[in-house]
Amino acid sequence: MRVADTDSGRTSMSEKAKPASGKKPPIADSPVAQERAPDEPSTDGVRGEASPGSGRSAKTGPKGGGKSPAHEGGESRVSVAAGVAGQRLGINKTYKLYLGGAFPRSESGRSYPVHAAKTGELLAFASWASRKDVRDAVVAARGAVSKWSGATAYNRGQVLYRVAEMIEGRSGQFAAQIFQAEGISQTAAQQAVADSIDRWVWYAGWTDKVAQVVGAANPVAGPYFNFSVPEPTGVVAVLAPATSSLLGLVSVVAPVIATGNSVVVVASEERPLPAITLSEVLATSDVPGGVVNLLTGRAAELGPWLAAHADVDGLDLAGAPDDIAVDLERAAADTVKRVLPPGTTGELARLRAWTELTTVWHPVGR
Fold first, then answer.
1. Cα–Cα distance for residue pair 319/299, rounded to 1 Å
2. Residue 305 lies in a domain
3. I need a surface site. Which of 2, 112, 141, 160 has the fewest CB within 10 A?
């Protein structure tokens, strides 16, 4: 090791490695100074190329200084494709159908815009169902009816009550959609959601009571027991009310599935978003796939195919257009369907409508 001799003017190796302290930075007019951003400190007066893994380019700003637009004010700003500073282009969702517990696209590939009732704002796009989608929905409903009707009445009631719990959990979303779809006040929209939940719970409580109310033990002249027992109708097609987007939908769907039937429902054409959200609730609840199948589109287009379908056992015309309601009843008569005409009221009447009474004779003492 060499020892420094300060008297003779020699220095050690460590002192030779130190840079000169009196070295001046480059002047302002030099090319190096022009290339440097004004807020970047000098490093020995010379800027090297950025390393490939450093993530920084050789230039951090334009010549002559100024902060980079991407870091102005210390916050990152996103470039706008539309070219308008401070705004972004929203993404409008295209909702799908709900068939057999899944969310397929319409076979036709069509969709239509959904607008707010008051402002006309574009809210989303809904799938425009076709005749093929109607057939697929009926097949899914027919495949699910045996399992659903074979479940105990108590179990069906528990499943429906679970749906009401999930609607309650998404009540804010339902209220916002009703407010936009129907053009009513926010208070009225919140009340509509509360009424829909209450009505769903009411029907859930009827699952194990309807047999006692509708059924009977009939007196007969002879040594026999005679019982009339309600059984599900089967697959029921429903045209949902066009004006009441959630409460009207619940009022026609809940009694159908409470009595053990499966349903194919056509949602309101102009106000489908609450119905679509309800289908998302059903998909994540305990309701088996295929028990409820939701189609969006024109009731005037889909109604005739449902009315004439031979594998549909019942037809609810609650939301049928006035000009085709009679024609739908005539089409349903060809396949001997049970038809509930428009204007039918009464919650218990809807429970009775989708049950068939089966009478059993049994000899006494056997």
1. 8
2. yes
3. 2
Total number of residues shown for the chain: 366
| Residue 6 located in a structural domain | no
Question: Domain with 311 in it: what CATH number?
Answer: 3.40.605.10
Which structural domain range is residue 298 located in? 94-363
> Tens digits of per-residue pLDDT, 169-215?
999 999 999 999 999 999 999 999 999 999 999 999 999 999 999 99
Q: What whole-number distance in Å separates Cα of residue 323 and Cα of residue 328?
A: 10
Closest CA to 230 of 250, 267, 185, 260: 260
234-250 mean pLDDT:
96
Q: Rounded to a whole number, what is the largest CA-CA distance in the chain? A: 140
Q: How many domains does the chain have?
A: 1
Cut 0.90: pTM above it:
no
Q: How far, in Å, CA of 252 to CA of 190, rounded?
A: 20
H-assigned helices in 128-226: 131-150, 153-169, 171-182, 186-204, 210-214
